[in-house]
Structures are given as C-alpha cells and as structure tokens.
Amino acid sequence: MAEKTIIETDPHEGHPEAGYREEDIEKEMKKHGGDVGTLIDLLKSRYQLDREKAADYLGETGDLMAVPALIDALKDPSISWIAAESLGKLGDPRAVQPLIDALGSDEKWLRRNAAIALGRIGNPEAVSPLIKLLSDARHDVRQAAASSLGAIGVKESVGALKVLANDPDEKVRQAAVSAIEQIERKNGETAAGRGAGAPGN
Alpha-carbon distance 150 to 160, whole Å? Predict the structure, then answer.
C-alpha cells in the first residue's frame, strides 16, 4: 500500500456529503462486485482522500482497465505519487513512457515511486533515464533508481552503479552494490544459458 502520509485534511469531514472514507470505498467495492469503474470514477472526486484511496486500491485490483486512468492521474499532483506506485504494481508497458516522464518531476515522492514502478515493469527503455536519476539530490530517489536498475538487469548500467557505490548515504551504497550483484548474476545466468564458453567481463 502507499507509504506517503496524507497531509491534507478534508474540510468537509463529518458532513453528510463529505467524501468517502477508506471503509466507505471498501463498502462501495463490495456493493459493486469489485467494479473497477467505481474506483476510476473516484479518481476525479473533489475530495483528495477519495482520490488517494482510489488510486491506491486500483493498483491492488490487477485490472489493466485502470491503466489509462492511472496514467492520467500522474498529472494530478495530489495523487500522482500513488498513481505511479499502482502503475508499477499493474506492470503494463503502456505506463513506461509516462513514468519515464515523471522522473523529471519536481516532486520527490513522484520521482521515487516512478523509479520503483519502472523497475517492477522491467522495460530496458527506462535504463538511461534511471541512470540519470542516480545523481538526484534526494538519497531515497537515488536508492530507488539503483534498485530498479538492478531489477531491470541491463549490464550497461553497472558503470554508473559502481560510481554510486561510493555515495555518502549508506542505504544508497547498499542499493548500488546489491544492484551490481543482481545484474552480474542475471547476465551470468544468461551467458550460461546460451552455452557461452568464456566468462563475462
């Protein structure tokens, strides 16, 4: 589930026409038989909490019908970081370019979650943009980019990860080293599977 703390309080909370609370969304989903369309509609709610919970739940449904709506939700600053996370869970390649675009956001939570999502999807098109993100000012963004490069497993990213292995932040260094090991294992297994006679460089 999404990790970021909700910072906006609904001024209409307690009013009969206030937005859905989390338990209300669950009730709506049960009432509609798990209708993803209900959650997609809630992405346009005037209440931020509705939009946040809908974006979060859509990632848990596994229903690719939600992908276009979640891509559109990347434009909503109040839920973009959740939409990115959910797109990663759904793993649809249609989200790759929108998530790559999101790496350039001024919002660090969106950059971080977009990087994580790209690692989950695993498309090599994300490698170059993720390498650029290794120099991000935020340590948690650098860590996410490194981990995703490891998950994608493209050998060309090893050089940049070796540089990151000297990062001042311990968690970033650990992510870089782990990613390098992951890439080397993946490429070693690939070479063995092809019957390569000589070890890789």
Answer: 12
CB–CB of 134/146 below 8 Å? Answer: yes
**pLDDT, tens digit, for every residue of 126-164?**
999 999 999 999 999 999 999 999 999 999 999 999 999
- When the pLDDT of each residue in the chain is averaged and rounded to a whole number, the result is 85
Domains of the chain: 20-93 (1.25.10.10), 122-201 (1.25.10.10)
Nearest Cα residue to 41 out of 60, 20, 62: 20
pLDDT, position 30:
55
**Listed residue (97, 103, 135) closest to 116, CA to CA:** 103
* Structure-block tokens of residue 8: 């906006």
Two structure tokens written together for 176: 């870089």
pLDDT at 6 over 80: no
Q: Answer yes or no: is pLDDT of 200 > 80.
A: no
Q: How far apart are CA 129 and CA 110, in angstroms?
A: 14
